[in-house]
Structure to design on (507 residues):
């Protein structure tokens, strides 16, 4: 998908894939009140001091063409995305990226949901070529270790049916929703389906909503924070979009908003306001409901919204830097008024861990007018040491359990260039007086990380040695695919991947 190049006093940037620089997603984690992360189609821009300073992280091989950026719940600070390499994650604020493994097919991920209720469960939707109709075979996989490994398919869609989204309920994690689409010639003729599981995915009940909504493709927006049976959805039928709400888990549904333009983002605030941002031929609109979706009113003079997030009663918007003059705006009154927080010209440096890797891409962006050339040479502010939720460098392991069980692993060093050596586990004395268990050294995530996973195996426990230097993920990728984080953007990624696998796009 190519975006129109509107200069507004700035050089129109034409990348190799036709993408104009644009924002996708904004993340403002409540557990870290000074952190603001803006995902774009040319990398990630972030601030760790509430917006006083901004730094840039270019795309590297692992997170190239990254979309659907999300963050884990506390105590982790893991950043996730769906990229060309598959589901990828970073434990050091974009310095290094790893690709999730396990049963999830490589490069097949088309959707991702990081559970918000705590713990380490992550859902991924995969599409592989080809089913009996010549289209992709869609399946859902889960990871219960925060990303490292995905298990076998939790659910596989019938032939001719695509999975377009997944989400679990914050108030009842055993409730899981899938949006499905039976094959049609286009989204205008597809059959909208909503599947619900109340037992963690063991069984799904599928509701055909075409009788109430007509034809179209459904996508999940969000499950209500406190009511697991209330769900916001997006229906797309050709060029017509609609906000859909079900209040009974999918048995019935209504479409209270059917704007003339395309819906870019739907967001419900903690105060209960529903914001629907649209774009009608380049003209932005923001519709708001303050009665839980019964009625909607237009907000005066909104920005071109690309993504929305909320923290401490403030709503943050990822916006169109070229049209609005800013890339992030903030509202303290549920979207009534907006003030600029950051534009691309305020980026002052590359994140220090990627200063060398991002040089070529930075020089290109500066040459094309995105920010001053001084950004590329500036010394950046070191990022927080966040590799492990309990601290940075490795420490000693816990004592062994009863009956001479092995001591717990020491904490590994943080990912990236400042990682410390992995800690050695202390020997544990068996409760029945048997020999102490063997220590297990903790491995660092990356960088100058921890050493071998296992210690010497001696009765007193082994100590891990310092690991080797970090392996560079790869050279920067100069241009990201023109994918704004919209529901249409997800479709574009699916189409690209399907084409690469020589499958027809049967959405």
């Amino acid at each position: 998908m190519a975006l129109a190049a509107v200069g507004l006093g700035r050089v129109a940037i034409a990348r190799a894939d036709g993408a104009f620089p644009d924002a996708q997603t904004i993340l403002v984690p409540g557990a870290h009140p000074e952190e603001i992360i803006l995902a774009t189609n040319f990398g990630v821009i972030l601030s760790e001091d509430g917006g006083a300073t901004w730094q840039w992280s270019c795309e590297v091989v692992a997170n190239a063409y990254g979309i659907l950026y999300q963050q884990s719940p506390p105590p982790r600070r893991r950043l996730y995305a769906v990229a060309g390499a598959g589901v990828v994650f970073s434990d050091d604020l974009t310095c290094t990226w790893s690709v999730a493994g396990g049963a999830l097919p490589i490069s097949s991920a088309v959707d991702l949901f990081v559970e918000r209720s705590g713990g380490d469960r992550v859902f991924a939707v995969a599409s592989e070529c080809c089913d009996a109709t010549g289209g992709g075979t869609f399946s859902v996989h889960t990871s219960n270790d925060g990303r490292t490994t995905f298990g076998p398919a939790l659910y596989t869609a019938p032939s001719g049916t695509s999975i377009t989204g997944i989400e679990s309920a914050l108030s009842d994690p055993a409730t899981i929703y899938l949006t499905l689409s039976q094959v049609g010639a286009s989204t205008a003729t597809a059959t909208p389906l909503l599947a619900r599981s109340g037992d963690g995915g063991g069984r799904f009940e599928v509701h055909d909503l075409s009788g109430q909504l007509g034809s179209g493709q459904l996508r999940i927006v969000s499950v209500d924070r406190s009511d697991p049976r209330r769900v916001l959805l997006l229906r797309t039928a050709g060029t017509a979009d609609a906000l859909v709400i079900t209040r009974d888990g999918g048995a019935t549904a209504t479409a209270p908003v059917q704007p003339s333009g395309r819906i870019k983002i739907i967001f419900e605030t903690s105060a209960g306001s529903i914001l629907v941002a649209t774009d009608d031929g380049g003209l932005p609109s923001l519709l708001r409901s303050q009665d839980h979706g019964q009625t909607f009113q237009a907000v005066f003079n909104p920005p071109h919204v690309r993504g929305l997030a909320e923290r401490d009663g403030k709503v943050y918007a990822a916006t169109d830097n070229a049209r609005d003059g800013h890339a992030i705006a903030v509202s303290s009154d549920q979207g009534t008024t907006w003030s600029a927080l950051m534009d691309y010209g305020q980026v002052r440096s590359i994140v220090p861990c990627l200063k060398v890797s991002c040089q070529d891409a930075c020089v290109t962006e500066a040459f094309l007018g995105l920010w001053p050339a001084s950004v590329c040479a500036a010394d950046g502010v070191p990022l927080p040491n966040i590799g492990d939720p309990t601290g940075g460098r490795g420490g000693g392991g816990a004592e062994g359990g009863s009956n001479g069980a092995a001591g717990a692993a020491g904490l590994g060093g943080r990912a990236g260039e400042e990682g410390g050596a992995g800690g050695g586990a202390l020997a544990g004395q068996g409760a029945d007086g048997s020999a102490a268990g063997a220590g297990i050294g903790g491995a660092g995530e990356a960088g100058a990380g921890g050493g071998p996973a296992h210690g010497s195996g001696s009765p007193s426990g082994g100590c891990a040695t310092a690991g080797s230097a970090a392996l560079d993920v790869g050279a920067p990728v100069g241009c990201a695919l023109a994918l704004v984080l919209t529901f249409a953007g997800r479709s574009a990624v699916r189409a690209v991947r399907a084409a690469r696998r020589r499958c027809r796009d049967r959405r």
